[in-house]
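Continuing the series of single-chain predictions for the mutant panel. This is the parent chain; the variants come on the following pages.
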Amino acid sequence: MAVLVEINAYDPVAGAPVSLYASSHDDTDACHAPGPSVWWPALAKLPALRYDLFDGAFEGQITAPSSSLIMQTEPWPSFARYAFADARVRVTSGSPDNWTLRFDGRISSQPKIENGTAAVDFAVDDKWLDTALLTTYAGTSGAEGAATMKGQTKPLALGAPRYVPGKLIDSINNVFQISAYNAISSIDTALEKLNRFAPSVGDYASYAALIGAAIPAGRWATAKAVGMARFGAPPAGLISFLVGGDSAGQDGWARLPGQIIRRIALFSGGAGKIDDVSLDALDAARPYPISIYIEEQTTARQLIQSIAASVNAVAGVSWLGKLFVAPVAIGAANTTLAADGSALPPVSSVSQIDVAAPWQKISIGAERAWTVHALSDIAFTAPLVPLGAYLGLTTYREGNIVSLDDGSTWLYTATTPTAGNPPGPGSAYWFQYSAATGTTVATGVNQFVLSSFVRGLQGLRPGIRSALVTPNGSNGSPTAILNTGLNLNADYSGLRNVAYATYTDTLRGDGNNNDYIDVFWSPGPWGGDSLASGNGYMMPVKKGDRAYFRALLAPHRSIAQLFLLIFNKVGQLLNAPSVYGGRQGGGQFGDPANFGPPVEGLYDIVEDTAALAILMVRMIGNGGNNPYLFLTEPGMGVIPKTQTVLPPYSPGPNDPLADRTIENMAASFVNQGGLSTLDQATINELDRNTMTATTSGSVSGTYGGAGTPSIAYIPNLGADMAIKSGGSVYLTFTGNIAATTDATGSIYASFEILNAADNSVLASVRLPTPGFGPAGRLDNFVIRILNVWGGLTIRWRVATRATDRTWAIVQNPQCSVYWTAL
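Parent structure:
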């Protein structure tokens, strides 16, 4: 394939143009290609024609493509005296049967001549894009404005801009010009201080006809052919218009991005320099109506760049000098590069490099108001006064404007001042001035560690049935087992990992005293875990935060409850907001549809000392046998205070222990998940201190009357037991409840755990017969007390119930109490 270059230079000595014809090949077909002269085989280096549409700064600049070539000067003895700067140059390639013009542009500067060759730099001619777009008023009165307007730019309306101000060009006749270049589609509405005028009294063909019309005071008329409007009386307030813009181009009333870019290019002298096919394709790919109002001087380049960027497109100038715009799209991959050598082409090395954030972001506005009205520009029956956040005790008057937490603003419209009437839908006192901004949907805020269970249940602590009996008792067997794990079936092939908890007995559910078990919680000060065990897993919170929590839950023969547990910095529980939900009978294979809607909650933290939060899941009995529960997609996070819509689910952060290679360096080096060995013996299990106290004896009398309950005292747990503040204590009761079983078999034991300092009750539990072993034996009944510090007193009684209000004490009860402090 041959390349032909034609340069139209100028000979200053002869005072005449001169054309140079050069070829890349020394053969008959190339040297005698069509043209007015022989094509000399003088091209020593061919140009490289390429586009660079990305400048590294995401600015979307329209840049002119450029290149260079080297040619011998011998065929033109006077080459050195020719003027080449800004000379036209064309590049053609092909064969005798098919010559194709590839480039049409200008030489950038005088060539550099050396050793009989000349280096020629050239680029596309795109100077027309940088000429001033708007024309100016002559200041000769009438349609050209008063003398004071001389040199001011004439406005241009494209699309359907809203609240455009126009320019007052004739103050005597009250004439405003909205768009000064061609006919416009419409002037739909005229407003004064945002009060709408009645419809136009008519449309006139010219400025002269418009000012010659009789227009009553308080009315207005249009001259769409010249983009003008006239009022029957001088306006008293700020004027604005709702208009349909320029409609004189080949597209008529231009609305789409490509159409408006074409109009701008033609205004700037781009006739014959526009790739119409690409603009039509842009409108097909981005069929979004846009609107622009221009009243300050600018260039076609600046406007076209901003329009293209607003619809995710890129603009450029082709090698033939044609403006084009193409939508940005990511196509399908053509090749897969495999670092392990399993695919061709081979990959020699792989490395990860830092990726910087984009330097500049594009801001896109919708339904822009081209005139921003101050409160004083708005007509109202009283002065408009913004007063900030609504306060219930403040007296508000007509014209006062307040805001609510959701970002909405409200205008007081009642004529009588009042206090204590909050804004809201249907209020007789308030009108909603602006919509709530609290519908923002935050993404990527999930702070639940290992929410996708990428390392099994490491992000969750499983419950222990014996340690989590409810304060009102359990009718389950003391040997019942709570099983927890991941993905219930061995052949699991679901959509996502699902945690499960199953209980091998019945949890009572009588409507008032339902049994429950805390089956999962994220590591932190709950269920016997220490505060230290939650390092890296707990979510930091503070007063004033808006916290969200969520999960997909599916309870079977039970009720699911999701908690967000709020603690202070030493691990003391401050609050436990919760929500119920989940689909009964679903959830096993991870399909969100089988879980039903997410169980979600919002909580505005009001506790002064709030510092940490964890997620906890509770399974509540409803009388069903062998209840179980599925859990997936747990999440928690802090979202904007004004947000009222919960964010969509996103995976949580990575394992916070993954980089602690000092504790399991070998496993970390081979990427085997890091600290699995720590789960063999947790810090909690190694840090326990155990003491035992035993009480026995015989008491008689009626409950609450005669008789003395047995009392056991546990010493100061802070000093004597050396536990951490906020720790937990497990109390285990065992022994013979009665020497002989009551005839009715209805034996009851009650236990009260009190703070030894003030005798306040920390827990109160009553167990019926099914909680006992054979012959009235009490086997390892456990109560857990959280956040203890100081001594505890234990009172217990064993009795039979004769009536609803009378209790008979069983003789010779014996009971040993063991406790374990963490």
